[in-house]
Protein backbone atom coordinates (compact mmCIF):
# COMPACT_ATOMS: atom_id res chain seq x y z
CA UNK A 1 0.00 0.00 0.00
CA UNK A 2 1.36 3.44 -0.88
CA UNK A 3 2.28 5.75 2.00
CA UNK A 4 2.50 9.51 2.24
CA UNK A 5 3.82 11.88 4.88
CA UNK A 6 1.32 14.45 6.05
CA UNK A 7 1.85 17.17 8.64
CA UNK A 8 -0.75 17.91 11.25
CA UNK A 9 0.11 21.26 12.86
CA UNK A 10 3.82 20.63 12.53
CA UNK A 11 3.81 16.93 13.46
CA UNK A 12 4.80 14.44 10.76
CA UNK A 13 2.43 11.48 10.34
CA UNK A 14 3.01 8.54 8.01
CA UNK A 15 -0.38 7.79 6.48
CA UNK A 16 -1.55 5.22 3.95
CA UNK A 17 -3.14 6.81 0.91
CA UNK A 18 -6.14 4.53 1.48
CA UNK A 19 -6.52 3.57 5.13
CA UNK A 20 -8.14 0.19 5.62
CA UNK A 21 -6.39 -0.92 8.77
CA UNK A 22 -8.41 0.10 11.86
CA UNK A 23 -5.30 -0.10 14.04
CA UNK A 24 -3.55 2.45 11.89
CA UNK A 25 -6.60 4.67 12.09
CA UNK A 26 -6.50 4.51 15.88
CA UNK A 27 -2.77 5.25 15.94
CA UNK A 28 -3.26 8.36 13.84
CA UNK A 29 -6.22 9.45 15.96
CA UNK A 30 -4.15 9.05 19.13
CA UNK A 31 -1.35 11.19 17.71
CA UNK A 32 -3.81 13.88 16.69
CA UNK A 33 -5.66 13.88 20.02
CA UNK A 34 -2.59 13.80 22.28
CA UNK A 35 0.31 16.12 23.00
CA UNK A 36 3.78 16.15 24.50
CA UNK A 37 4.07 17.66 27.96
CA UNK A 38 7.01 18.16 30.32
CA UNK A 39 6.00 17.49 33.93
CA UNK A 40 7.39 17.31 37.44
CA UNK A 41 5.99 14.79 39.91
CA UNK A 42 7.94 15.33 43.13
CA UNK A 43 10.54 17.70 44.58
CA UNK A 44 13.93 16.81 43.14
CA UNK A 45 17.17 18.64 42.49
CA UNK A 46 17.27 19.75 38.87
CA UNK A 47 20.34 17.58 38.28
CA UNK A 48 18.11 14.51 38.76
CA UNK A 49 16.87 13.11 35.45
CA UNK A 50 13.37 12.61 36.87
CA UNK A 51 13.04 16.24 38.04
CA UNK A 52 11.43 17.03 34.68
CA UNK A 53 10.15 14.25 32.44
CA UNK A 54 8.37 14.08 29.09
CA UNK A 55 5.00 12.38 28.94
CA UNK A 56 1.98 12.24 26.65
CA UNK A 57 -1.32 13.83 27.67
CA UNK A 58 -4.70 14.19 25.94
CA UNK A 59 -4.88 17.45 24.02
CA UNK A 60 -7.36 19.76 25.80
CA UNK A 61 -10.37 21.39 24.17
CA UNK A 62 -11.35 25.04 24.50
CA UNK A 63 -14.53 25.99 26.34
CA UNK A 64 -15.93 29.16 27.88
CA UNK A 65 -13.51 32.08 27.43
CA UNK A 66 -10.50 29.84 26.88
CA UNK A 67 -8.12 29.81 23.95
CA UNK A 68 -6.34 26.60 23.01
CA UNK A 69 -2.85 27.76 22.05
CA UNK A 70 -0.29 25.71 20.13
CA UNK A 71 2.85 26.66 22.08
CA UNK A 72 5.78 27.76 19.93
CA UNK A 73 8.20 29.08 22.57
CA UNK A 74 8.53 29.44 26.34
CA UNK A 75 10.64 31.36 28.84
CA UNK A 76 11.91 30.54 32.32
CA UNK A 77 11.11 32.43 35.53
CA UNK A 78 11.98 31.89 39.22
CA UNK A 79 8.43 30.63 39.81
CA UNK A 80 9.22 27.59 37.64
CA UNK A 81 12.06 26.46 39.89
CA UNK A 82 10.14 27.25 43.09
CA UNK A 83 7.14 25.16 42.05
CA UNK A 84 9.37 22.32 40.81
CA UNK A 85 11.15 22.22 44.16
CA UNK A 86 7.92 22.00 46.16
CA UNK A 87 5.44 20.06 44.03
CA UNK A 88 4.01 16.77 45.28
CA UNK A 89 1.68 15.47 42.60
CA UNK A 90 2.27 11.97 41.26
CA UNK A 91 0.07 12.71 38.23
CA UNK A 92 2.58 15.31 37.08
CA UNK A 93 2.39 19.10 37.07
CA UNK A 94 3.04 21.03 33.85
CA UNK A 95 5.16 24.07 34.70
CA UNK A 96 5.75 27.17 32.57
CA UNK A 97 4.34 30.67 32.89
CA UNK A 98 5.58 32.47 29.79
CA UNK A 99 4.63 31.47 26.26
CA UNK A 100 4.04 32.59 22.72
CA UNK A 101 2.05 30.56 20.23
CA UNK A 102 -0.79 30.25 17.75
CA UNK A 103 -4.48 30.05 18.63
CA UNK A 104 -5.83 26.73 17.40
CA UNK A 105 -9.29 26.77 18.95
CA UNK A 106 -11.50 29.32 20.73
CA UNK A 107 -14.16 28.71 23.35
CA UNK A 108 -17.77 29.70 22.58
CA UNK A 109 -17.59 32.79 24.83
CA UNK A 110 -14.34 34.18 23.38
CA UNK A 111 -14.80 37.66 21.95
CA UNK A 112 -11.42 39.02 20.93
CA UNK A 113 -9.41 36.23 19.28
CA UNK A 114 -9.63 33.91 16.30
CA UNK A 115 -8.02 30.71 15.14
CA UNK A 116 -4.58 31.51 13.69
CA UNK A 117 -3.89 34.56 15.89
CA UNK A 118 -0.30 34.77 17.14
CA UNK A 119 -0.38 35.51 20.86
CA UNK A 120 1.75 35.83 24.00
CA UNK A 121 0.80 35.48 27.67
CA UNK A 122 1.93 34.42 31.15
CA UNK A 123 -1.01 32.18 32.06
CA UNK A 124 -2.52 31.19 35.40
CA UNK A 125 -0.58 29.44 38.18
CA UNK A 126 -3.64 27.37 39.13
CA UNK A 127 -3.81 25.75 35.67
CA UNK A 128 -1.45 23.56 33.60
CA UNK A 129 1.47 25.62 32.33
CA UNK A 130 3.09 26.26 28.97
CA UNK A 131 5.62 23.39 28.95
CA UNK A 132 3.33 21.41 26.66
CA UNK A 133 2.51 21.46 22.97
CA UNK A 134 -0.95 22.89 23.70
CA UNK A 135 -2.25 25.05 26.53
CA UNK A 136 -5.60 26.44 27.60
CA UNK A 137 -5.54 30.08 28.70
CA UNK A 138 -8.24 32.65 29.45
CA UNK A 139 -8.47 35.22 26.67
CA UNK A 140 -8.56 38.07 29.19
CA UNK A 141 -4.89 37.60 30.11
CA UNK A 142 -3.69 37.14 26.52
CA UNK A 143 -2.60 39.62 23.84
CA UNK A 144 -1.46 39.38 20.24
CA UNK A 145 2.29 39.10 20.25
CA UNK A 146 4.48 41.97 19.01
CA UNK A 147 4.49 41.87 15.21
CA UNK A 148 8.22 42.57 15.01
CA UNK A 149 9.24 39.62 17.19
CA UNK A 150 9.58 35.90 16.56
CA UNK A 151 7.84 33.57 18.99
CA UNK A 152 10.94 32.96 21.11
CA UNK A 153 11.63 36.67 21.55
CA UNK A 154 7.97 37.37 22.39
CA UNK A 155 7.88 34.63 25.03
CA UNK A 156 10.45 36.53 27.11
CA UNK A 157 8.09 39.36 27.99
CA UNK A 158 4.69 38.46 29.49
CA UNK A 159 5.30 37.52 33.15
CA UNK A 160 7.98 40.13 33.79
CA UNK A 161 6.02 42.81 31.95
CA UNK A 162 2.88 42.22 33.99
CA UNK A 163 4.86 42.08 37.24
CA UNK A 164 6.84 45.25 36.54
CA UNK A 165 3.82 47.15 35.19
CA UNK A 166 1.63 46.30 38.17
CA UNK A 167 4.46 46.91 40.66
CA UNK A 168 5.30 50.37 39.32
CA UNK A 169 2.07 51.74 37.95
CA UNK A 170 -0.41 50.13 40.32
CA UNK A 171 1.30 49.25 43.63
CA UNK A 172 3.66 52.25 43.72
CA UNK A 173 1.15 54.47 41.97
CA UNK A 174 3.70 55.92 39.55
CA UNK A 175 2.01 57.92 36.80
CA UNK A 176 3.11 56.34 33.55
CA UNK A 177 2.12 59.47 31.65
CA UNK A 178 4.85 61.57 33.26
CA UNK A 179 3.53 63.56 36.22
CA UNK A 180 6.10 61.81 38.46
CA UNK A 181 8.98 62.60 36.11
CA UNK A 182 12.19 63.35 37.96
CA UNK A 183 11.33 61.33 41.05
CA UNK A 184 13.77 58.63 42.13
CA UNK A 185 13.25 54.88 42.00
CA UNK A 186 15.60 52.28 43.50
CA UNK A 187 15.28 48.89 41.78
CA UNK A 188 16.77 46.03 43.78
CA UNK A 189 17.52 43.20 41.38
CA UNK A 190 17.90 45.33 38.28
CA UNK A 191 19.50 42.74 36.00
CA UNK A 192 16.82 40.08 36.41
CA UNK A 193 13.85 39.68 34.12
CA UNK A 194 11.45 41.84 36.14
CA UNK A 195 14.13 44.43 36.79
CA UNK A 196 14.94 44.56 33.08
CA UNK A 197 11.36 45.54 32.30
CA UNK A 198 10.94 47.81 35.33
CA UNK A 199 13.95 49.91 34.34
CA UNK A 200 12.42 50.56 30.94
CA UNK A 201 8.88 51.23 32.17
CA UNK A 202 10.19 53.62 34.82
CA UNK A 203 12.29 55.50 32.28
CA UNK A 204 9.26 55.80 29.98
CA UNK A 205 7.53 57.52 32.90
CA UNK A 206 10.47 59.91 33.30
CA UNK A 207 11.83 58.62 36.60
CA UNK A 208 15.46 58.66 37.67
CA UNK A 209 16.34 54.98 38.00
CA UNK A 210 18.97 53.58 40.35
CA UNK A 211 19.45 49.84 39.78
CA UNK A 212 21.44 47.33 41.80
CA UNK A 213 23.98 45.10 40.07
CA UNK A 214 27.30 43.65 41.21
CA UNK A 215 29.07 41.98 38.27
CA UNK A 216 30.47 43.85 35.25
CA UNK A 217 28.05 42.04 32.91
CA UNK A 218 25.00 42.90 34.98
CA UNK A 219 26.12 46.53 35.45
CA UNK A 220 26.52 46.90 31.71
CA UNK A 221 23.12 45.27 31.18
CA UNK A 222 21.13 47.64 33.42
CA UNK A 223 22.87 50.69 31.99
CA UNK A 224 22.06 49.54 28.45
CA UNK A 225 18.39 49.36 29.41
CA UNK A 226 18.37 52.95 30.65
CA UNK A 227 19.32 52.95 34.33
CA UNK A 228 20.73 56.33 35.35
CA UNK A 229 22.87 54.97 38.17
CA UNK A 230 24.10 51.57 39.36
CA UNK A 231 24.88 50.55 42.93
CA UNK A 232 26.40 47.29 44.16
CA UNK A 233 23.99 45.25 46.26
CA UNK A 234 26.98 43.46 47.79
CA UNK A 235 28.01 46.66 49.55
CA UNK A 236 26.25 49.24 51.74
CA UNK A 237 23.31 50.55 49.71
CA UNK A 238 22.71 53.52 52.01
CA UNK A 239 26.31 54.68 51.70
CA UNK A 240 26.39 54.30 47.92
CA UNK A 241 23.07 56.10 47.49
CA UNK A 242 24.27 59.03 49.60
CA UNK A 243 27.47 59.21 47.60
CA UNK A 244 25.57 59.63 44.30
CA UNK A 245 23.24 62.24 45.80
CA UNK A 246 20.25 60.11 46.81
CA UNK A 247 20.36 59.60 50.59
CA UNK A 248 16.63 58.87 50.29
CA UNK A 249 14.49 57.81 47.32
CA UNK A 250 10.84 58.33 46.43
CA UNK A 251 10.13 54.72 45.46
CA UNK A 252 11.69 51.29 45.97
CA UNK A 253 10.91 48.20 43.88
CA UNK A 254 12.48 45.13 45.46
CA UNK A 255 12.60 42.23 43.00
CA UNK A 256 15.04 40.24 45.11
CA UNK A 257 15.09 39.23 48.79
CA UNK A 258 12.52 41.06 50.94
CA UNK A 259 13.96 39.85 54.27
CA UNK A 260 17.54 40.86 53.49
CA UNK A 261 16.72 44.38 52.35
CA UNK A 262 13.92 45.29 54.75
CA UNK A 263 16.08 47.33 57.10
CA UNK A 264 17.89 49.32 54.43
CA UNK A 265 14.65 49.95 52.53
CA UNK A 266 13.13 51.47 55.66
CA UNK A 267 16.29 53.55 56.06
CA UNK A 268 16.48 55.02 52.54
CA UNK A 269 12.80 55.48 51.65
CA UNK A 270 11.64 59.10 51.79
CA UNK A 271 8.88 60.20 54.14
CA UNK A 272 5.53 59.26 52.51
CA UNK A 273 7.47 57.07 50.09
CA UNK A 274 6.31 53.73 48.70
CA UNK A 275 7.92 50.28 48.58
CA UNK A 276 6.84 47.19 46.65
CA UNK A 277 8.12 43.62 46.99
CA UNK A 278 7.55 40.39 45.08
CA UNK A 279 9.45 37.76 47.12
CA UNK A 280 7.66 36.26 50.11
CA UNK A 281 9.27 36.68 53.53
CA UNK A 282 10.56 33.77 55.57
CA UNK A 283 9.41 35.42 58.81
CA UNK A 284 7.34 38.49 59.76
CA UNK A 285 9.03 41.81 59.04
CA UNK A 286 8.94 44.83 61.33
CA UNK A 287 6.34 47.16 59.79
CA UNK A 288 7.04 49.53 62.66
CA UNK A 289 10.20 50.64 60.86
CA UNK A 290 8.00 52.42 58.32
CA UNK A 291 5.71 54.19 60.79
CA UNK A 292 7.69 57.37 61.44
CA UNK A 293 7.94 58.06 57.72
CA UNK A 294 4.33 57.04 57.01
CA UNK A 295 5.81 54.91 54.25
CA UNK A 296 3.74 52.35 52.35
CA UNK A 297 4.64 48.74 51.62
CA UNK A 298 2.71 46.69 49.05
CA UNK A 299 2.96 43.19 47.65
CA UNK A 300 2.88 42.47 43.93
CA UNK A 301 1.79 39.01 42.78
CA UNK A 302 0.99 38.93 39.08
CA UNK A 303 -1.15 35.79 39.43
CA UNK A 304 -3.63 37.47 41.79
CA UNK A 305 -6.04 38.46 39.04
CA UNK A 306 -6.15 35.10 37.29
CA UNK A 307 -6.02 32.96 40.44
CA UNK A 308 -8.81 34.87 42.19
CA UNK A 309 -10.75 35.71 39.01
CA UNK A 310 -10.94 39.41 39.81
CA UNK A 311 -13.44 41.48 37.80
CA UNK A 312 -10.58 43.38 36.14
CA UNK A 313 -8.67 40.34 34.82
CA UNK A 314 -8.66 41.84 31.34
CA UNK A 315 -6.27 44.57 32.55
CA UNK A 316 -3.42 42.12 31.99
CA UNK A 317 -4.38 41.41 28.39
CA UNK A 318 -4.67 45.13 27.75
CA UNK A 319 -1.29 46.00 29.23
CA UNK A 320 0.36 43.22 27.21
CA UNK A 321 -1.27 44.64 24.09
CA UNK A 322 0.04 48.11 24.91
CA UNK A 323 3.50 46.71 25.57
CA UNK A 324 3.46 44.91 22.23
CA UNK A 325 2.91 48.28 20.58
CA UNK A 326 5.81 49.82 22.52
CA UNK A 327 8.06 46.94 21.46
CA UNK A 328 7.05 47.26 17.81
CA UNK A 329 7.97 50.96 17.70
CA UNK A 330 11.28 50.37 19.51
CA UNK A 331 10.47 51.99 22.86
CA UNK A 332 11.03 48.72 24.75
CA UNK A 333 14.37 47.02 24.24
CA UNK A 334 15.10 43.25 24.09
CA UNK A 335 15.46 41.55 27.47
CA UNK A 336 16.74 38.13 26.36
CA UNK A 337 19.99 37.13 28.00
CA UNK A 338 20.22 33.53 26.81
CA UNK A 339 18.55 31.17 24.34
CA UNK A 340 18.10 27.42 24.09
CA UNK A 341 16.65 25.52 21.14
CA UNK A 342 13.95 22.86 21.23
CA UNK A 343 11.56 22.46 24.15
CA UNK A 344 12.26 19.14 25.88
CA UNK A 345 12.86 17.75 29.35
CA UNK A 346 16.61 18.02 28.75
CA UNK A 347 16.59 21.68 27.69
CA UNK A 348 14.18 22.63 30.46
CA UNK A 349 16.46 21.04 33.04
CA UNK A 350 19.33 23.09 31.62
CA UNK A 351 17.18 26.21 31.80
CA UNK A 352 16.23 25.53 35.44
CA UNK A 353 19.91 25.07 36.28
CA UNK A 354 20.71 28.46 34.78
CA UNK A 355 17.84 30.09 36.66
CA UNK A 356 18.97 28.57 39.95
CA UNK A 357 22.60 29.63 39.41
CA UNK A 358 21.84 33.24 40.29
CA UNK A 359 23.99 34.47 37.41
CA UNK A 360 21.35 34.72 34.68
CA UNK A 361 21.04 38.21 33.21
CA UNK A 362 17.71 39.06 31.60
CA UNK A 363 15.46 36.23 30.39
CA UNK A 364 16.19 32.73 29.09
CA UNK A 365 13.95 31.55 26.26
CA UNK A 366 13.44 28.21 24.54
CA UNK A 367 12.03 28.03 21.03
CA UNK A 368 10.38 25.17 19.12
CA UNK A 369 9.64 21.52 19.80
CA UNK A 370 11.71 18.47 18.93
TrEMBL record:
The keyword Oxidoreductase applies. Keywords: Acetylation, Cytoplasm, Metal-binding, NADP, Oxidoreductase, RNA-binding, Zinc. Residues 47-366 form the Enoyl reductase (ER) domain. Pfam families: ADH_N, ADH_zinc_N. Gene3D superfamilies: Medium-chain alcohol dehydrogenases, catalytic domain, NAD(P)-binding Rossmann-like Domain. CDD domains: AL_MDR (cd08252). SMART domains: PKS_ER. One of its GO terms (molecular function) is zinc ion binding. The keyword RNA-binding applies. PROSITE patterns: QOR_ZETA_CRYSTAL. It is found in: Cytoplasm. One of its GO terms (cellular component) is cytoplasm. Belongs to the zinc-containing alcohol dehydrogenase family. Quinone oxidoreductase subfamily. Homotetramer. NCBIfam families: adh_fam_1. PANTHER family: QUINONE OXIDOREDUCTASE. This is Zinc-type alcohol dehydrogenase-like protein.
Amino acid sequence: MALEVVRYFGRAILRPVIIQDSLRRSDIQRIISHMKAIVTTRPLAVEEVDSLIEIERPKPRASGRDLLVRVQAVAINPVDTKVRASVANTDGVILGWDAAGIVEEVGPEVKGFYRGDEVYYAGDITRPGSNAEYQLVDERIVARKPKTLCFADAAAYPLVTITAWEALYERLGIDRHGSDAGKSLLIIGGAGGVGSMAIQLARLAGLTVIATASRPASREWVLSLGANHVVNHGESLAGQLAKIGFPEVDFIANFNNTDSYWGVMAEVIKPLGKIVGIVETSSPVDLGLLKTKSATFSWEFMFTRSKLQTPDMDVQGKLLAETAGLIDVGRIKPIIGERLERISAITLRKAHQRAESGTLVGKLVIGGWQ
